């Protein structure tokens, strides 16, 4: 074969980490290839994660509104579910998005090498295509962006259409009568919401005595109350220890986490959503002297794993979020290109795309208390926000936490419709090191839900709230 110049960067994995790195490298004029074994680019997020789940959340939210909200405001309809069309509309959007990434690769001169990549030594990536053919790429730098996969639950083996992971839950061909979700985390609550809205009876079994660990406890408590009101049931402090496939469903053995008598729960479909784990299968890490940590994550020092080997995204530490992978991606390529690459992990926002949404950035009250930080707290309920009232969407509140001495914003937490859109004024304020008073003194348009964030900041300052 004709000798070609080595790539400046070969990225393994074409998800939000890998594809953003490839595009950034192309933009900086680096010779770059991205190895992806899936038939389409975009990784978990575009193919079986963020995007299809948000498509179903949007569609099912509209269906739910048509069923239960429209009549209240004087619109009488009798909605009928066409699940096939709902899936098709989701699949069409996903295809358009993955094609969009392919287009951006071409535009930025990033090569997509189709196949499974394996590191076979310093600067060498062997790629095996679907047809079995093998090629070896020479790389000055290798970026590992292989992402994550669902964590299986011992004793509860996956079974097509019956015991499923998030990917299965994105394409169920029929609405289950009774869906049992194991794990009250983000996937369990988002996808549980989808199927509840479409008609399933949903029970969520959670090991801890609370839902959504990581979310501010006050918010999580309110969130659970709202989800319960919507018809979702929770079995907290409970662990699933076994599953038995029966003719018309699955029988789960459930025990109190603290020990005690077991009981049986039966559902026609069980969704296992107990977390995701880093994916490094067959990656050849040993060829460059890299060993993942006990939980399978690859450690790094400013993205560097070994000489000429870098890591980003879900396969390394930090929140397993698409936008975090994207931040890593730009920072690693900038670092490789000799520029300044930096990610502020303290300011990665989190959003749960249920109804209402929950969004936050910075620290929770639990974290501030644990760290012994003196803080002030301001809160404003959506029941007192005019836009929320007009729209009959008054569940939830905004909460601002600020340093007691300096007034610097330390965390902002919102539960309410479109909280995911509203959180960014908090993120920007915090990235400028802003104070709660800065939000409180900034003119906000009326009537908007964002006024609730301002009111919460005013509450921190002890100013009178708007009636
Ligand atoms: P991935 O997206 O997992 O991409 C890794 C890619 O590498 C994969 O395409 C894989 O095929 C490929 N690969 C792995 N090994 C090899 C190899 N050896 N050779 C070639 N290719 C390989 N995050 C959000 O921020 N917002 C959301 O709303 C959201 N919703 C989600 C909903 C669901 C149901 C799930 C499962 C996840 C969701 N996430 C969400 C998380 C998000 O998808 C991940 O954080 C993100 O995809 C991580 O990006 P990544 O590039 O690190 O890895
Ligand atoms: P998660 O970590 O959010 O939640 C898992 C839940 O399962 C936890 O509450 C945990 O206590 C519980 N659990 C663990 N073992 C259990 C057991 N044996 N029995 C019962 N409960 C058990 O993980 P999840 O929901 O699977 O999501 C994985 C990742 O995907 C998340 O970390 C998140 O970063 C990402 N994601 C992000 C989304 C978003 O940003 N909106 C949407 C969906 C996923």
Automatic annotation (TrEMBL):
Catalyzed reactions per annotation: N(6)-[(R)-dihydrolipoyl]-L-lysyl-[protein] + NAD(+) = N(6)-[(R)-lipoyl]-L-lysyl-[protein] + NADH + H(+)
Pfam families in alphabetical order: Pyr_redox_2, Pyr_redox_dim
SUPFAM superfamilies: FAD/NAD(P)-binding domain, FAD/NAD-linked reductases, dimerisation (C-terminal) domain
Listed cofactors: FAD
Origin: domain of life: Bacteria
Keywords associated with the record: Disulfide bond, FAD, Flavoprotein, NAD, Oxidoreductase, Redox-active center
Enzyme class of the recorded protein, top EC level: oxidoreductase
Domain Pyridine nucleotide-disulphide oxidoreductase dimerisation: 348-457
E.C. number: 1.8.1.4
UniProt entry tagged with the keyword Oxidoreductase: yes
Entry note: cofactor: Binds 1 FAD per subunit.
NAD as UniProt keyword: yes
Domain FAD/NAD(P)-binding: 7-329
Similarity field: Belongs to the class-I pyridine nucleotide-disulfide oxidoreductase family.
Note: The active site is a redox-active disulfide bond.
Stated name of the protein: Dihydrolipoyl dehydrogenase
Lineage: Bacteria, Pseudomonadati, Pseudomonadota, Alphaproteobacteria, Caulobacterales
